[in-house]
Write a structure and sequence with these properties.
The structure is a homodimer of 561-residue chains. Helices cover 38% and strands 16% of the residues of chain A.
């Protein structure tokens, strides 16, 4: 029931058939106070219904890369679909604003919703680039302004962590299993839940976060911790020692002894004689207990005491006992030490078991590694050579440790059909004015070549026709492109009550698939970790001229003194 | 209503009279899957009710400092006070665990709550140090284990961001106003809400986050953005130009003209002749409109076009017009450029206005600065000299950009009255075993000298008696201390149904006060930004001996080959 409330439709605010945001704390009050003071000032000036166009975009790709994954759109749409103030919220705003504010404003707020708002956005999970609007929000200026903070909040971290996940996937390679283990180190509870969702989009296979598994249907993974191992003293404490065979045909009455017998057999075998001595009994008890509980899913954490002298031999003894009863063990997890070395040694040990005891496929036992992994350590492991099949990644992934924030902004580009430009002494901070259309142009080899922004009323770029693409601010940077394929980037995701057709919100799996497909489609030099080539973002010749006309108009003429 | 649900008591899970966690997504499913697989394995082995003691602690202070602020406790207590699985949650766990898991386990889960759990903790808002348990959790091992992930999640970010806030406060000095402006860049919605709460504890005065203001009663601040300025074209568009004087005695029918008159007066005054030319009309219109809406709270963002040539003169014209009508203007905000230089120039401008027009206190106009501020930039501003009265800090503060995670861990230290030690080849990762008591010893000058951990049954350190304090792992590091004051650190915050007395959860304001008081009490060399002196954390002689006895017992004896 509780969780239903967290995820289910927010009936009070329901608008159409779209559920509310995943986190019920995402309400119209989750915004900066200045959105309300501005809202009042617009209302007081009679300006509140003036039609404004805002672009949401970022200025620089994160993590020193040349691409970003756009994520968080679904939550934004769920938010505006249910945008409505409760009486209690209005009372709080009234108590917060100065007492001189007029009552009529609160009547106005009572009627505010997003039926007059339209949102055009790039599809979630797309590869995106600086300066190109990820979202274009059109609506009454007072309402659009109230959306700024929640939209930027919902997009910033989502896109950042999805990008981080994609970068980890690119380094790990397609064949590895990537597990998100970050909940405990995430920045707050839904830092954790958001991380699980957006890492899945960015290319992770599963999460440890049960709440995220339930909310989003993401596969879950997890076995046991060091505490589980040290909570046992010795195999003597195991009371119920019986285990039925996998096919149910017989019961081993003393699985503990079977494990012990296998441990002896390994220890005194030709291959392992003298390799290890007495293994840790607390660990052996823990592994045996875990196997009794999960005979079909036995995966053991082997580094509580000593990986090669205790963890691996104990694991193998239990695994072989399980195999005797027709089960298949899954593998091990390493959570400390030299993961490259230990994974190779573990693999050798497994292969030797396979040969020594003729147990087929024992050498293919799965090896999971965790412990402060990040892009750099994955890369280093690849260079050293390793035998890891799955990586569990936490802190560095979910907190985006290498760069903890993406700088998405929300800028006014037009009001009452008048284009607006935000100037700055720093050219990279000048915003591109006008309500725009955005296209991605693809070349002969199927790679995207350039993104181009045009004015709303310009003709779209045509296939196989030469188009001049200009850098928005640098006069000399321009290139002709003959696109083999043209994709319009901004699609209508929210049309309010206008009746305009809008895109459906796709299921999470489809968003992930889009992301994986788009990443594959990119020219590899844009994606490499070191010195990637910047992807080109441009404007049409017409828009270029218009930007510079406005710029000259707005900029004060200095006086040299 | 909606928000009531987010904050109000969670009746379904209510236990005693403590409300549920602020974020309703903090449910018993907000944990790692392995907590459930271990829980099942404990249950299957009949071990689930064995009494375990876990310590929650961190190993290293963040941000290169030598102190940390402990925060997040209230949310943990609210969580366990309402810990209970819903049927729907149990169904999800059943669907997630292998089908071989026995039904009895789910009956067991149905009955699980925290009535058998006890939590001892350092008071929230305290200054804390590595290795000392922030929380000691005692209870049935299966239940305590389920609490690990949510507790660590709730403490990690809370303590990290509170510490970050405290560091900003220490650099800014007591007299400055500190405003948390981070919602849009936070890691998800309650990254933002948590940041507001914990930055307030750590020493911030107010937040821009309306939801946090409402949930926690934190003062709110905010005026307007650049978009507000650029949404205006010229003062001609202002329709309702009248403004009643502050005392209500008269009405100025054309405030726009009054502002214009002041602007002319300034421009042609003796002091300002030739200093600035035509100011930006869009900005002037925006300021005038904002003043008409908030005549008592006029604070203007002055850097949309040109601070000294447009923003400041426009602000002064509007402020002087307001003063004519008996109002007091608040001040300006700078959001770009050289904040040290511009704040000094702005102050000079204000003082010149005060002298030129005989307007008393105009020179004391408040100056707020924002724009990517952090500890370093605050420090640099102090060194350069500046005239800023208030700092608005966002990204670097709330995302803890300088170090995005704190590494709190949750380690088993005792089970069935048997102490447990977690060994590691890395000495800093060895855990301190046993159920412990922790004390802070204060010296003659009132400063804390050292924290000491003892076994549960040792006598507490006595006033004015010599106590040997030993480094937990380094034989030669030890010192005698004669405490002038002794404070026991761990207090009972949750006693389940045991009937033991427990501490009340204090209001947020008291937590903040505790934090401010404790920060003041520290010896300054522990707190300085560069090369701070580490604060000493020690164990009693008895505990030292016991740790090393256990260590030798558990560690395998290597063989040199």
């Amino acid at each position: 029931m509780e969780a239903k409330a967290a995820n289910g439709p927010n009936t009070e605010r329901s608008y159409g058939v779209i559920d509310g945001p995943t986190n019920p704390m995402v309400t119209p009050l989750l915004t900066d106070l200045y959105q309300f003071t501005m809202c009042y000032a617009y209302w007081k000036a009679g300006k509140h219904n003036e039609r404004a166009v805002f672009d949401l975009f970022f200025r620089k790709n994160p993590f020193g890369g040349e691409y970003t994954i756009f994520a968080g759109l679904e939550e934004c749409i769920k938010f505006i679909a249910n945008f409505k103030f409760t009486e209690e919220e209005i009372s709080f705003i009234r108590a917060t604003l100065p007492p001189t504010c007029e009552d009529g404003f609160y009547d106005y707020l009572r009627g505010v919703d997003c039926s007059d708002v339209e949102v055009y956005a790039i599809s979630e999970g797309s590869v995106v680039f600086p300066k190109v609007p990820l979202m274009r929000v059109e609506g009454p200026i007072a309402v659009a302004q109230l959306l700024e903070t929640p939209f930027v909040n919902l997009i910033n971290y989502a896109s950042l962590v999805a990008t981080n996940a994609a970068r980890h996937r690119l380094v790990a390679g397609k064949s590895k299993m990537l597990l998100e283990f970050g909940l405990r180190r995430a920045q707050g509870p839904d830092g954790g839940i958001g991380a699980s969702k957006y890492c899945y989009i960015g290319g992770f296979d599963a999460t440890s976060n049960v709440a995220a598994g339930r909310l989003f249907g993401i596969p879950l993974r997890g076995t046991h911790s060091h505490a589980f191992v040290s909570s046992f003293m010795s195999p003597d404490e195991i009371i119920d020692k019986s285990l039925r065979s996998c096919d149910g045909s017989r019961t081993c009455e003393d699985f503990v002894s079977l494990v012990q017998a296998w441990l002896n057999k390994i220890q005194w075998s030709r291959s392992f004689r003298g390799v290890f001595g007495e293994t840790n009994q607390s660990e052996l008890a823990a592994f045996t207990s875990y196997a009794l509980a999960f005979p079909n899913n036995f995966l053991a954490l082997v580094d509580t005491y000593d990986v090669m002298k205790s963890g691996i031999p104990n694991f193998c003894a239990v695994a072989l006992a399980l195999i005797d009863l027709g089960y298949k063990a899954v593998g091990i997890r390493l959570d400390s030490g030299d993961l490259a070395y230990l994974s190779c040694e573990a693999r050798k040990f497994f292969c030797t078991i396979e040969n020594e005891f003729g147990v087929s496929d024992f050498g293919k036992m799965s090896i999971t590694a965790s412990n402060d992994l990040n892009e750099e350590t994955l890369d280093a492991l690849n260079k050293q050579g390793h035998e890891v099949d799955a990586f569990g990644i936490g802190t560095y992934l979910v907190t985006c440790y290498a760069q903890a924030a993406l700088g998405c902004v929300f800028k006014l580009v037009e009001i009452n059909n008048q284009p607006r430009i935000k100037l700055s002494e720093d050219v990279s901070k000048v915003s591109i004015p006008c309500k725009k259309r955005c296209y991605r142009l693809f070349g002969r080899e199927g790679y995207p070549l350039v993104d181009i922004m045009t004015g709303e009323n310009e003709l779209p770029p045509k296939l196989a026709e030469r188009i001049l693409c200009r850098h928005p601010f640098s006069e000399s940077k321009r290139a002709y492109v003959v696109p083999q394929h043209v994709e319009e980037l901004l699609k209508c995701y929210w049309s309010g009550s206008s009746g305009k057709a809008r895109e459906e919100l796709p299921p999470l799996k489809n968003i992930k698939e889009r992301c994986m497909k788009q990443l594959e489609q990119m020219r590899p030099d844009h994606m490499r970790r070191l010195n990637p080539t910047p992807y080109k973002v441009s404007v049409s010749a017409k828009l270029y001229d218009f930007i510079h006309f406005l710029w000259l108009n707005e900029a004060p003429v200095g006086e040299l003194q």
